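Lab manual, section 2.4: Encoding a predicted structure.

Procedure: take the sequence of the chain (546 residues), apply the prediction step described in section 2.3, and record the output as structure tokens. A sample record is shown.
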Amino acid sequence: MITVANIGLQYGKRILFDEVNLKFTRGNCYGVIGANGAGKSTFLKILSGEIDPNQGEVSIDPGNRMAVLKQDHFEYEEKLVLNTVMMGHQEMYSIMVEKDAIYMNPDATDEDGLRAADLENQYGDMGGWTAESDAAELLSNMGIRENLHHRIMKDLTGPEKVKVLLAQALFGNPDVLLLDEPTNDLDAETATWLSDFLADYQNTVIVVSHDRYFLDMVCTHMVDIDFQKIKIFRGNYTFWYETSQLLTQQMTNKNKKTESKRQELIEFIARFSANASKSKQATSRKKALEKLNLEDIQPSSRKYPFIHFQPEREPGDQILRVHGLRKNGPNGEVLFEDVSFIMNHGEKIALIGRDTSALNALYDLLAGKVEADAGTIEWGQTITFDYLPNENAEFFQGDNDQDLINWLRQYSKEKDEQFIRGFLGRMLFSGEEVYKKSSVLSGGEKVRCMMSKMMLSHPNFLLLDEPTNHLDLESITALNNALKDFKGNLILTSHDHALLQTAANRIIEIMPSGMIDSLMTFDEYVRSDRIKAQRKEMYEGVLEAA
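Recorded output:
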């Protein structure tokens, strides 16, 4: 158990936390949520001891081991991959290094031999005899091939390093596990495996994530940072969000009697509890909800942008035809080939793949930014598309470095300042913020500006390459609702599982040797044994050819 007693943190006049008192108990997974800048990652750093609070203390039960997901992807460049994972249990790893050094020393004394024997006993008690096989199993489960286990870290790609550091945190069954954005840069298969792993985890997990599906799958409690306080609520993210939204609606309706409000909440909790039966943690979640105190819940202070894409015209019979598309990388390597598909009315495609550069290139081809090395792209005559690229720097530099009113005005048919101000206000740019220069915006603010630009163009086809990058949970939720309601077609890539599951009805996976095209939901696709076998065959064929 971790106990947080009277924690306070302040930077200058800005108060992040004030008199925070919490207990995190074994067998539960806590999802930390809050607006951007609320202090989610900072709170994890306080729990880990990396940052000292201005007041109060954090204590962990004696004998418990804490593991933290490392954020520095270059910390272990010269270390073997397998050893990097085992370093997650630092005490065990130090014992292993010391005893191996004694065995390799030709001048070792009898005293050294006795020391080695003592170390062997300690090593065995910590589970050292299976350490290497346990580490290898974690790596394999995360898609790190066995031929990479004895390579050094600098030989791995960025996403592979992320997986190794995640395996390091999970290694050795730590009593307390702190994870800051663990699904970042994970492919769908690995993210699903991690969700299943943590759903069955018997110790304490505290996680920060913007992935709502992940929070729903693994969390028994939400830790909400709001009003300079931190409170724990039972239930997963969807339950917290919908309850908070319901309370907010009720507060605006002054005529509702208190008892009717209470009854509506009770009915909602009952429905949610019934739906929880689909989860691996159904029993624990149901018990948690039964203990829920309605008086403890309050509306959130966080704000949600208004996102709504309204097509100006209905699409005709032909939407999009792609035939035999191929694109090579800058060094002549094949990013993808033989990509062919036809889009029909009402289809919303989730475009996925392990190689982000291949996906970026395909979006640029579809948007007409670059030329294909082979194949054709044919848009229907009635189609008006707009494109949100993964990298948007070009829209905020040079002549585009203007205040937000003038920046957005250049993309609007309506030039009136009050109209532009109103539009910006709905996207959470209010007051003096509309005079900010576009070049000084944060990543999330730039994405909200790009979405404003897209809404003003009224397209009937959306190309969205990682639209959730840099967005907070509130903006992701608003975008998700907008894409579910969108009446046109779209092609979407995102690491947000919930977004792909609810906004897409067709999955296309891009690989160097071709593609997999399937009319199913994202959940069905990720868990399909047939798809897994097909993907394995295609990737292994590429490796054999190499």
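Check your result against the sample. Residues 276-286 have pLDDT under 50 and may be disordered.
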